[in-house]
Write a structure and sequence with these properties.
It is built from 13 helices and 12 strands. The chain is an alpha/beta fold and 366 residues long. Strand 11 and strand 12 (328-333) form a beta hairpin. Helix 7 (164-185) crosses helix 8 (200-209). The longest helix has 22 residues, at 164-185. It starts with a strand and ends in a 7-residue tail after the last helix. The structure holds 6-O-phosphono-beta-D-fructofuranose (F6P). The site of 6-O-phosphono-beta-D-fructofuranose has 10 residues, from loops. The active site is at residue 152. Residues 3-310 form the Phosphofructokinase domain.
Length: 366
């Protein structure tokens, strides 16, 4: 029986438990055995109790739970070759030669590297006497499949990462709550949202809540943004708005790539407009809590597709990542998606913001 491991890695996101449930049940349905690797790559490197066989009932109730019930960790040891050798040994000892990882682009790139070093890692273990040649013979190919789990929606090649819509939902709920108190006091609020280097959460939340102004890393405001923002706020107030909501992505910056902070924006509104303005940093409430219907659906269908991709794989198959494009669940080339994601970051570094937006598939207008 083929043994398939499932792991969550990097920052947790809503829907990761749905992935574990779906992979475990689909693997069993297809006549395979399923194993959960606890605590991300750390579990793969340490082995022992951190790799457990999962049965149908072990994932009962997973679908509606937030976070990741099998844990996650940023594991430095796996990023060094000796750590990956240990991980390979743990897999072979359990008869596993397939791994499905749900995480961000860094976690998925790590997995692809692991695959590229296989079976060299096994040969190393034979040389050091830790494994016997007969033990490694049946496991000459490692099959890896990635699923993108992140609230940031920062991976190119997929329309949505698992977790991003739950997070967006939560942000909107919180902004609405701030909205009520802001309107009561006629105050201004600068609300900082997560997203790392990606402005998707901030941009979508600003549209969904009717915010007055938004700061995102991919399209920094031009020189003199302070005046522009104040003019917009003044005109909105003149139309009768009792509150001002500014959404700022945690990665916000100006055209010279200098960070723009929420405090800075608060000061501008306070000093230039004499507006009673407060800052709200939403923090990790954006990441925890219930997955939305969309993330339950996405994680379930993508988990099924990941198991199918593992079962269809040949030694020639490039490592797939499961994506969703125009509402269709697809298999894409992991390396291509990672390269495209990196090219967005590169364009921003070069201050070519129009290109960055284009690469993110957002129309750019001066
Ligand atoms: O990548 C997900 C994310 O929540 C980002 O939006 C944020 O910048 C980061 O992780 C926070 O990481 P940590 O939980 O390690 O502080």
């Amino acid at each position: 029986k083929k043994r398939i491991g499932v792991m969550t890695s990097g920052g947790d996101s809503q829907g990761m438990n749905g992935v574990v449930r779906s992979v475990v049940r689909m693997a069993i349905h297809m006549g395979c055995e399923a194993y959960a690797v606890y605590e991300g790559y750390d579990g793969l490197v340490q082995g022992g109790d951190l790799i457990k066989q999962m049965h149908w009932d072990d994932v009962r109730g997973f679908l509606s739970r937030g976070g990741t019930l099998i844990g996650t960790k940023r594991c430095m040891e796996f990023y060094e070759r000796p750590g990956r050798v240990k991980a390979a040994k743990n897999m072979i000892e359990r008869g596993m030669d397939a791994l499905i990882i749900c995480g961000g682009d860094g976690s998925l790139t790590g997995a692809d590297k692991f695959r590229s070093e296989w079976p060299g890692l096994l040969e190393e273990l034979v040389k050091t006497g830790e494994l016997k040649q007969e033990q490694i013979e049946p496991y000459q190919h490692l099959n890896i499949c990635g699923l993108v789990g992140s609230i940031d929606n920062d991976m190119s090649g997929t329309d949505a990462t698992i977790g991003c819509y739950s997070s967006l939902e939560r942000i909107c709920e919180m902004v609405d709550a701030v909205f009520d108190t802001a309107a009561s006091h006629k105050r201004g609020f600068v609300i900082e949202v997560m997203g790392r280097h990606c402005g998707w959460l901030a941009l979508m939340a600003s549209i969904a809540t009717g915010a007055d102004y938004v700061f995102i890393p991919e399209k920094p405001p031009g020189v003199g943004w302070e005046e522009e923002m104040c003019d917009i706020v003044t005109s909105h107030r003149s139309w009768g708005k009792r509150r001002t909501i500014i959404i700022i992505s945690e990665g916000a910056q100006d055209t010279e790539l200098k960070k723009i902070t929420a405090d800075q924006v608060v000061n501008v509104l306070t000093e230039k407009l004499n507006l009673d303005t407060r800052k709200t940093v939403l923090g990790h409430i954006q990441r925890g809590g219930l997955p939305s219907y969309f993330d339950r659906w996405l994680s379930t269908l993508q988990g099924v597709e990941a198991v199918n991709a593992i079962l269809d794989a040949t030694p020639e198959t490039k490592t797939p990542v499961i994506t969703i494009r125009e509402n269709k669940i697809e298999r894409s080339d992991l390396q291509e998606c990672v390269a495209l994601t990196k090219s967005v970051a590169e364009a921003i570094k070069q201050k070519d913001f129009a290109k960055a937006m284009k690469l993110r598939d957002v129309e750019f207008k001066e």
